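Same chain as my last thread, 480 residues:
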Amino acid sequence: EWDRWLLMGLIGTAVGMLGFLTHQIIDSLIKLKWDLVENYLQVSKRKTWYMGADVVIYLSTGQDGNIHMTWLCVLGSGLAMVVLSSGSVLFLCPAGSPSGLPEIIGYLNGTSIQHLFNIKTFLGTFVSCVLAVASGLFCGPEGPMIHLGALLGCGLSQLQSDTLGIHLPILTRFRNSADKRSFITAGAGAGIASVFRAPIGGLLFTLEEVSSFWDIRLAWQTFFCCLTATFTTDLLSSSFYGFVYRGHFGFFEAEKRIVFWNLLDMNVLAFVPTVLLGMLGGLLGALFVSLNIKINKLRMQFFNSIPKSSLRKTSKLLETVLILVSKKYDSLDYIKFTVANEGKFLLMFCVSPHLFLCVAAAALLVENAKRGITYLFKRGTHEEFGYTSLCTALAVYFVLSCWTAGSAVASGLVIPMLYTGALYGRIIGLVLVSIFGVQTDEYGAWIDPGLFAAIGAASFFSGVSRLTISLTVIMVSTLS
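reply #2:
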């Protein structure tokens, strides 16, 4: 069995490297986009007071006073990424859209799907995923990473490709459907483990959601694969950010990984809003799924009514463009502001000047969702965001993420689910702060919007995905 374990380790290493590469490219594209935007920014500083904190506002006028040129720069860069992202799956690999996870689940449970494990599908899914996330669409890389991990599990275990004409005469004993499914299962688990740095979560996810055929041996081998993927991603990410070497290779900084560093004394009263958030997550999750099913049915009816294949694909591409334009519709002026808080958090976003009261909402919508989630989870930021900004961001994010799911880009739903849940969780926390005030003693420290943002994120994630055990492990691995 040594060769089976060797392949599991090889698949885990490959998936970990792919996860590292995916995040580095996304970070680089986002940085490149905003560096390009900053070339058009000329800012004037103004101090003001907002949300209980001193705020430094930088009102931009654009290069040579051309506001619209600045706006077109953001919109144009996003549209270019979306067009390439959608085009790569529509014209290169239809099997790679939208996330590939349902297809993987179907295959592992006995359904045969054509071109699901094709090299073109791999390339198209990878390109579409990184461009879709970097463009600013309400999506994440999780679903495509599961698909890509399964693709690597299939390719590396079979050591053959009909497309490339490669048939290596080694490890041929694994070229059967049973072993092939085992390696695909391990690759899928390694994909989710690489994204969340949660090897146990990756194992439980495949057990709970992906595959129906299990034994103890496969469980241990899948865990080894997930562990290898997590270690590889962490090791490479320890010294690189946006492909820039920062030194300290192999040095894992705990403060950058652990969101809730200090332990928090809990009160039995905290279970009351927690139960409320659980019920709210179930209701909103059911609403999200129901709304998404209706949107996808209408989408299928509309596109199936178009007779010509080329026109149908073009229409699907234009839909993704419309989604992005809907998000950036009000982005005419750019504002930078720094909230003077403990974390010195810097946001860059765009709103119209007359929408100053919705400044924080615009920040939540334009900011990189992964960073935004971390900030919503942050403790001690009781009054950073008000009801108006949180409710506005929640409504917009809920609708647009529901619309994005199922569109013609390789995208995942985990980041939107966590973000949506964090928004309404923080609203509940803000309600408690409004009732009881900001508590600093040990008995009332649990009344913190950041804490309830994390609970809300888990509740909505569970409400949409129906996951329980694996979700708990993933959240614990992410937050502590």
